[in-house]
Amino acid sequence: MGMCLSGFAFLILAATGFWGNPSSYWAMFQMVAGLGFVIFVHEMGHFLVAKACGVKCEKFYIGFDFFDIKIGNRVIIPRSLLKYQWGETEYGIGIIPLGGYVKMLGQDDDPRKYEEEMARSRKTDGTETKVVAGTETEKAAHPHHESVTDVDMEPTPLPGDGDESFELDPRSYQAKNVPQRMAIISAGVIMNVIFAVIFATIAYSLGVSHVPTEIGRLAPGGAAYAAGVPVGGRIVQLAKGSSKNEHLRFRHDLSQAVMMAGVKRDLEVLVKTRDGKEEWYAVRPQDTTMETAAGPQKVPTIGVGPADTTEISPVTTLAKQFAAAQVENGFQAGDVVTAVAAPEGEKVVIGDMASGGPYVLDGFLSQHANVPITFTIERTPQTEDGAPVKNAAAQTVTVTVPAQHMQRLGLVMKAGPIESVRRGSTGDKGGLKPGDELLQVDGAPLGDPLTLPDRLQGKYGQPVEVVVQRKDDKGATHEETLQVEVHPPEFINTMWSTGSPFVVQELGVTFPMLREVTAVMPDSPAAVAGLQAGDLVDWVSFKVEGDVDADMKNLIPVDRTIDLTGKAHNWMEVQSWLQFAVPQNKIQLAFSRGKEKQQTVTLKTYPAPEQFNPDRGLHFMTLQEIHKAPLGEAIGFGFRETKENLVRVATFLQRLATGEISPMNLGGPGMIAMAATSEAKQGTANFLLFLTFLSANLAIVNFLPIPVLDGGHMMFLTYEAIFRRPVSEKWFVALSLAGLAFVLSLMLFVVSLDIFRFAQMFS
């Protein structure tokens, strides 16, 4: 009954992990079995209620068996991969894995077969007519017959030839009254909702692994940074009307809440700080171009990143261009940092998450970027293939990592006006405002803006004089001198994205780095190439020449061109990629000088003497938690999870219809399969939560008032119940054809999106 469409689960593309290449056969098996089971549950609902109402069910299919795949007259792939006749019903698996259906006597979702099915629903035995024929001609021919439909909301009148006496087959769908047909129609959706609760209950009983909404870092100039959201705080409530939840998930609850908010309304978040205080923040998501395996994607973000642990990530050992990977007998994946020390300084103990260890480590690295640091680490012995040795005692090891100079081309770029001032920061308290242009800091000209954090290092807690150029209400400019206290950095800034501004955490401000050259460092690659102050950089490209280690290919800029002539990109994107460049990178830069012809030069990076990279190439594992509950609580969580998913899907569709969310954020069958496989690889509990989300999707989408879907059938039955007559054949066929065309068009659209994304990924 009704096509159950699995191809329209609306998933969000903010996470690039959805586009990983599935490597686990078990995860893929879970994906196929899980998606098939969700469809099976939906169709089983229709089937069981139809049987209970006495309707003959002719077919029960997972997947659609619309046609054979042929070459000429030869069938290459039959329409049914598997089928079996049991009693009066044919059970099977169709070749089109986009849903399923139950075929009942007298019912077909293909409107072109309307009259054929109506004819099959009647029986002719010469007895007195019990139901007046459904066409207008036949009704006129029987003016004194009172249709049962007119008095008891009984079956839909059927077409006949006007002369033949007939009655409905009592086992046909059309022979059932309106309440019975409504029950059959709604059973699939109800079963999806019931099993969504069951899936979620089992998941929370097993224990759900998730990335919590603890804020580990902020994007420069992002909504959260400007709003003053604290690093180390945990988001425990999304919107004031929702319930408080200490176990919100970063890549599900938060990401989807941001998507739902869009860029036209504030998202209210309740943040609980590490000392237990709670405060509401209103953040307005911003459209941000994110680099994904499927290519650049523009999505709304608030500019927050998940928290890290103090456990070394494998990336640390692979990124050979950084100091952390160049140390002999250095770090191994799985090492845990327990203490750090600078030359002639006391050892600082790095505690666990409960004591804020990662934030202590971040602060120490930021404040000692220009000196070597000795790390004390706890190491579990490993085999040659990297597996931990069973029952082996942990070892204490020390590793000293030298300071890491920032890689530059030798260009000093112009700083634009201040874009944002962090609420509650020392800059905010000192009077800095968006639109101000920095002229002097601490008695010296601004100079190279990128070295400002390094120049302020060691002056934490001290006021410095900041001279800005400011426009008044009439547009006239004037200089103002302010006193601003220097604040220690809260986090190591690694969240660069397309168009990111530069952040000076010490003053709590961000500003864009423009494409105008204000100075060229003596003897630098840029100076040797002939660049001068006043030049305008048009674009910078990164290519690879020569062999690169396979493990490094995803860690360096490859075939990337950054166009600086528009508004989408700025110099910080170039500066970020320069840090990942290797000797095999060929860096080309095109610049304009006055009315001269554009020139292109080839450059190499060099270490800037006065600017340092605080993280030194260290990467840490993302914090993950397991939320496990006893059965009683798990049932409550199951109901809550299902309700939240239903509301989330309905809200998404509403904002999609009003244009607040782009249809480019839809995903088709390929997207669903990739998401399901990704979740299955995280464990059974996570996969069950995904099935909860998918079940909510199917329930809402299939109940939309679109003819050929369950909601469309319910719409026709509601009309029949109110007006005590069915929709005319002409309107039924016309609306059904329109609904079918819409569904097929939407299916083609989302499948095309999937194909495009896969093409981008594999290219």
From TrEMBL:
Protein's cellular compartments: Membrane
Biased composition (Basic and acidic residues): 113-128, 136-148
UniProt GO BP: proteolysis
Stretches that traverse the bilayer: 30-49, 182-206, 687-710, 731-753
Principal cellular location given in the protein's record: membrane
Keywords: Hydrolase, Membrane, Metalloprotease, Protease, Transmembrane, Transmembrane helix, Zinc
Cofactor list: Zn(2+)
A UniProt-annotated Pfam family: PDZ_6
Bilayer topology: Multi-pass membrane protein
InterPro entries xref list: PDZ, PDZ_6, PDZ_sf, Pept_M50_Zn, Peptidase_M50
Domain named PDZ: residues: 398-446
Region Disordered, residue ranges: 113-163
Gene Ontology cellular-component annotations: membrane
Domain of life, source organism: Bacteria
GO molecular function: metalloendopeptidase activity
EC number: 3.4.24.-
Family, per entry: Belongs to the peptidase M50B family.
Name used for this protein in its record: Zinc metalloprotease
Higher taxonomy: Bacteria, Pseudomonadati, Planctomycetota, Planctomycetia, Pirellulales
